[in-house]
Amino acid sequence: MKPEKIVFVDDSLEKSFNELSETDPLKKGLLRAIRDIQENAFCGRNVKKNLIPKELIKKYGLNNLWIYNLPDAWRMIYVLTPSEEVKIIAVVLDWMDHKDYERLFKF
């Protein structure tokens, strides 16, 4: 299923994305992730509800979470939300290196 649109969770995250160099492997990976999610909102790995970090639930009120693997062990996390017209919107919450990813998910 294709999402209606993909947005960043806030302006500061979008600004960080826009400030990445076009030649940065991370930006290239994020662009690929966005293209893949535009084609199939469920292309990432779904996190089981009981494994969603409580801090993310508290901060964003999540009931689902998806992980997309980026180059060099970075991860992008996103959530799927229904819009008013029962269309899906993908919201990019963050991206992080593997160390921060392990810390967030308590691995």
Describe this entry's structure for a reader:
With 107 residues, this protein is α+β, with helices and mostly antiparallel strands. It has a single domain, classed as 2-Layer Sandwich (YaeB-like fold). 36% of the residues lie in helices and 25% in strands. The chain is built from four helices and five strands, in the order βααβαβββα. It has a five-stranded mixed sheet with strand order 1-5-4-3-2. Strand 3 and strand 4 form a beta hairpin. The longest helix is centred in the first third of the chain and has 15 residues. The radius of gyration is 13 Å and the shape is globular. The protein starts with a strand and ends with a helix.
Notable traits:
107 residues; five-stranded mixed beta sheet; 4 helices; YaeB-like fold; single chain; alpha+beta
Layout of helices and strands:
Elements: E1 5-8, H1 11-19, H2 25-39, E2 45-46, H3 54-60, E3 66-69, E4 75-82, E5 88-96, H4 98-105
